[in-house]
């Protein structure tokens, strides 16, 4: 009991420094008005991204609307191709599903996207001295940023009973030649996305 009373008289071993400032402590800082030169020296260089993100930490911005419209525009401008036994052209973009984004990380800009495409194609082929009108689609199951070298296209032809298997095979091989012009348009798209 006596020991507890002694501790109470001595005071607590914990000290809150603000309450018990001593005379040897440093004086509190005084506010100073900055001159125009001081303000000019302290302005940080502009960072990428939003104003609230001056440190350049993580920030993600969706570019999906712009990217979808731009892909449709670019792929619609591929035009027609002439083959040894016919010609075909991309009529429109049936399906363009995916997303595109701009990410700012540590004050560095990075872009990315993932899309799936289906392009409507029509053409005419001469086979056994007859002109056959063919409709179909070019499907690109999935492609993303930086993977255009691995791009693959699936050719689907409309169910036409007049077309022989031999002609269908010829048409599929010819339509696969659209792969290179499509790849070039997608490379242009990637560059425009990087420049945004």
Would you mind describing this structure in some detail?
This protein has 196 residues and is α+β, with helices and mostly antiparallel strands. 29% of the residues lie in helices and 34% in strands. The chain is built from five helices and six strands; from the N terminus they run ααβαβββββαα. The protein has helices at 2-10, 36-42, 64-76, 165-175, 179-195; strands at 59-62, 80-82, 86-105, 108-127, 130-144, 154-157. Strands 1, 2, 3, 4, 5 and 6 form a six-stranded antiparallel beta sheet that branches. Helix 3 (64-76) packs antiparallel against helix 5. It is rod-shaped, with a radius of gyration of 34 Å.
Uncertain spans: none
Strand content: 25-35%
Secondary-structure element sequence? HHEHEEEEEHH
Structural class: alpha+beta
- Distance between the terminal alpha carbons, to the nearest Å? 77 Å
Give the fraction of residues assigned to helices: 25-40%
Mean pLDDT: 83
- Major sheet: 6 strands, antiparallel
Task: Give the count of helical stretches.
Answer: 5
- Beta-strand segment tally: 6
Return Rg in Å: 34 Å
Shape: rod-shaped
Family: Belongs to the AHA1 family.
Protein name: Activator of Hsp90 ATPase AHSA1-like N-terminal domain-containing protein
InterPro entries: Aha1, AHSA1-like_N
Domain Activator of Hsp90 ATPase AHSA1-like N-terminal: 60-196
């Amino acid at each position: 009991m006596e020991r507890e009373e002694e501790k109470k008289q001595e005071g607590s071993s914990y000290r809150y420094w603000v309450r018990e400032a001593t005379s040897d402590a440093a004086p509190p800082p005084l506010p100073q008005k900055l001159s125009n030169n001081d303000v000019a020296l302290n302005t940080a260089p502009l960072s990428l991204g939003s104003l609230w993100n001056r440190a350049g930490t993580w920030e993600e911005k969706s570019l999906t609307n712009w990217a979808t419209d731009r892909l449709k525009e670019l792929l619609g401008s591929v035009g027609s191709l002439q083959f040894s036994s016919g010609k075909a052209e991309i009529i429109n973009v049936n399906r363009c599903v995916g997303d595109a984004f701009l990410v700012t990380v540590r004050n560095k800009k990075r872009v990315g996207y993932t899309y799936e495409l289906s392009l409507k194609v029509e053409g005419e082929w001469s086979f056994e001295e007859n002109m056959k009108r063919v409709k179909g689609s070019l499907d690109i199951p999935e492609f993303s940023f930086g993977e255009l070298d691995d791009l693959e296209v699936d050719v689907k032809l409309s169910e036409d009973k007049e077309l022989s298997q031999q002609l269908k095979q010829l048409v599929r091989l010819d339509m696969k030649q659209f792969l290179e012009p499509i790849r070039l348009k997608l490379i242009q798209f990637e560059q425009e996305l990087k420049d945004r």
